[in-house]
Amino acid sequence: MLSHFYIEMVHSLFSNLMIGNNISLIFVVYISSKMIVMVIQQEKEKKKKYVYGDVLSYMDYLEREKYNSGKKGTASLYKATRNQLEHFLNKRDFNMKRINSRLVQEFVGHLQSLSLSQNSVSNYTSIFRAAYNAAVSEKLVTPEENPFQKVYLRPIQTYKRSVGAEVIKEITRMDLKSKKNLRFARDLFLFSFMACGIAFVDLAHLTRANIRGNQLVYYRVKTKREIRITITSGMRRLLDKYADPESELLFPILKSPDTSYESYKVALRTYNRRLAVIGNMLSVPVKLTSYVARHSWAMRAKENSVSVAIIGQILGHTSEKTTQFYLESLDQAIIDRANLKIINFVEQWIS
Question: How far is C-alpha 322 from the chain's CA centre?
């Protein structure tokens, strides 16, 4: 490489430089600055060629960036989207500048042809859009149009993500003495509900350091927001039940606080699988997942007239829009109950 030539030259000049030889010193400084500029430019060109050359390589770059910044869940979404794009583009190089509304529509059509759910199509398209917007921000492409303008990206609720108080009570009263694994999953679910809907990823990483007096204090993995929750008597009983003096963790979900992301995903799948079994054991079966405890708490809070802003703050949301998505199905339920009060006298006469 040419930069090695300059490095050797500078080294030789410094070795032979005599104190007071201003001409040699000026020459060395000049050559050094030129060499630094050239090396930086070479690295930029190398990075552009390798990372920004086409859509797929840029997606690879963004995936690594997300993973290295600790956003491992988001990184996995970028990887999955990149794989879908590779299949769509038939593994060929495709420059970011060639992305237009027609290509985006064709990509959406390709995803739909795979019989994916609407939410999966929405997620892949959203990540593609985020990658494109990142490229625009880095001035890798100057769009003449917004290629995603005509694409509907909003996810839909595919099933009811919350359950009422009666279901929570039934889960609490379940006899699971002979089913240790299900009992543990049930206890985690109830703790999540009592702890203001703490997300499973945060629950799994709680350590003794997160207990400060009578409060549970932690930073959300997803948004980095600080959450403070007063520990209730029910929460305390569960904490005492699973306390292990040999472990820093509050619950034996992971082997250690710094367990790999892959191991966490295995734990999450195991938890959801056990919750599904519990859900099917209910008098009226429901689809239980790790999200249900979180959504159920939010719904109950709204039912008790807690403001959306406060609910969002407790859940650690960064925007009220996210909180509204948690609560939008509740609004109809409130309307329905109000309506029944109004028309109840007629209902009893209709057979």
Answer: 13
Tokens describing residue 136: 């625009």
* Tokens 């099933």 sit on residue: 159
- Residue 32 in tokens: 């050094």
d(CA 67, CA 111): 25
Distance (Å, whole) CA 89 – CA 15: 55
Residue at token pair 């921000």:
137
User: Phi/psi at 322 (nearest 5 deg)?
Assistant: -65, -45
Length, in residues, of the chain: 351
pTM: 0.61
DSSP 116-184: --HHHHHHHHHHHHHHHHHHHHTTS---SS-TTTT--------S-----HHHHHHHHH---TT-HHHHH
pLDDT in tens, 63-103: 999 888 888 888 889 999 999 999 998 877 788 888 999 99
Average pLDDT over the chain, rounded to an integer: 78
